[in-house]
Specification:
It is a single chain. This protein has 224 residues and is an alpha/beta fold. The chain has one domain: 3-Layer(aba) Sandwich (Rossmann fold), CATH 3.40.50. The chain is built from 6 helices and 9 strands; from the N terminus they run E-H-E-H-E-H-E-E-H-E-E-H-E-E-H. The protein has a 7-stranded mixed β-sheet with strand order 3-2-1-4-5-6-7, sandwiched between helices. A two-stranded antiparallel ribbon has the order 8-9. It is globular, with a radius of gyration of 18 Å.
């Protein structure tokens, strides 16, 4: 089975990038990170790309006007084409993208809540967990989804839940969502893509695109 060729986009510490690299090294994930793209040349997570000899590209958001999302995005996707990636993985990438036509349903993101709760413009990082605690929810988690041109939108691939405890703080809930949900869900979603088990269908009744996960090929073969 050919490896899934990825571009990974980061803005900060790169913990998600490191998780993917480590799972690849353990043989748990059939991926090939072809390039890491950052919007900040001082992003700490770039150290992991350097350590593992992964090419690095910097596209500074500050060099584009605030309203020039299209120009900034075009440069990102130009790089992705250069490295001939199959999918683009947003891993703590804090810049809005306008998805190029040839990358529709080929860009993934993970959000630290169960979409549609606590998501949308302005909901990222600590704000998400603060909102969850303030609302008093009993479970939280993460959502892996395809990215479209709306914040935290696009077809949902999978979700993972974690409990919210009575004594939780923003930090403890954030860590539980990251380590127990995000670090599991993102690799799982990418492995499903590698195995060609993710399909999309448009539901006319609900007027939305939904994801269907196919069974493993050996299960399908056993039925025949």
């Amino acid at each position: 089975m050919p490896e899934l060729k990825l571009a990974v986009l980061i803005s900060g510490r790169g913990r998600t990038l490191l998780n993917l690299i480590q799972r690849k090294e353990k043989g748990e994930l059939n991926i090939n990170v072809r390039v890491v793209v950052a919007n900040l040349e001082e992003a700490p997570g770039l150290q992991y790309a350097e350590k593992h000899n992964i090419p690095i590209e910097i596209v500074k958001r500050s060099e584009y006007a605030k309203e020039d999302v299209e120009g900034f995005s075009a440069e990102i996707f130009k790089i992705c084409r250069k490295y001939r990636v199959d999918y683009v993985v947003m891993a703590g990438f804090l810049c809005k993208l306008k998805i190029a036509e040839d990358f529709q349903n080929r860009v993934l993101n993970i959000h630290p809540s169960l979409i549609p709760s606590f998501c949308g413009d302005g909901y990222y990082g600590r704000q998400v967990h603060e909102a969850a605690l303030k609302r008093g929810v009993k479970v939280s988690g993460c959502t892996v989804h395809f990215v479209d041109d709306v914040y935290d939108h696009g077809p949902i691939i999978l979700q993972k839940t974690v409990p919210v405890l009575e004594n939780d703080t923003t930090d403890t809930l954030s860590d539980r969502v990251l380590y127990d949900a995000e670090f599991v869900a993102y690799p799982e979603a990418l492995q499903l893509l590698s195995e060609e088990r993710v399909t999309l269908r448009y539901d006319k009744l609900m007027r939305t695109t939904l994801v269907k996960i196919l069974p493993p090929k050996d299960e399908e073969d056993a039925k025949e």
